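Input sequence (120 aa), recorded before submission:
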Amino acid sequence: MGRPVVHWELMSKDPAKVAGFYEKIFGWKVTHMPELNYRIVETGAEAGINGGIVKPDRPEPWPGNLTLYIDVENLDSYRERIRAAGGKIHVEAQEVPGMGRFALFTDPEGRMMGLWQTAK
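Predicted structure, token format:
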């Protein structure tokens, strides 16, 4: 039996700003739970995993940097949405032969993330 990924977290200096960025781009539902200093992220997909956004209660540096690849139906339109929302594209669309295409971007805090479009 495998060990699937069941949750992810983004550590953030400004959780509200980062949550708004991902809500705007991908339509994710982010619920703020102030009593836990935490934001629950629901991606709205039947497959995949949900996660959270948190500002740790300890000084930086925070361990690790997480790169997630987010499945999209149109890589080009999401690259434009990211730019319009204040993100930056670092790796333009690249082919993975027989599998799909990807691009890498950073959110407003500089966190690297990926976009993935499966080949049809």
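Checked by second reader. The chain has a mean pLDDT of 90.
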